[in-house]
Amino acid sequence: MPSPPPAVPDHLSTLIEQIVEAVQTGNDAEVRRLLAHLADDVAHTQALLVLRQRLNEDLHP
Question: Which pLDDT score, from 0 to 100, does residue 55 have?
């Protein structure tokens, strides 16, 4: 069982879920737009770790 994702601020958690949804639906333009928005917070390494974990969860259901 994977470990729980690290805590991130609410606005980043919402953004991460939006990115995951855009990836799941194959909406490339939305993925690019949301990743550009995330780049504003790229120094927030916890957010990047949460995004990585969420995307990996979809690869290994």
Answer: 86
Are 20 and 55 in contact by the 8 Å Cβ rule? The answer is yes
Positions of E strands within 1-61? none
Q: First-to-last CA distance in the chain?
A: 11
pTM for this structure? 0.67
Phi (first) and psi of residue 41, to 5 degrees = -115, 25
Quote the CA–CA distance of 61 and 46 in Å, as a whole number: 22
Q: Which amino acid is at 14?
A: T
Residue 4 and residue 34: Cα distance in Å, rounded?
23
- Kindly report, residue by residue over 17-39, the tens digit of the pLDDT: 999 999 999 999 999 999 888 88
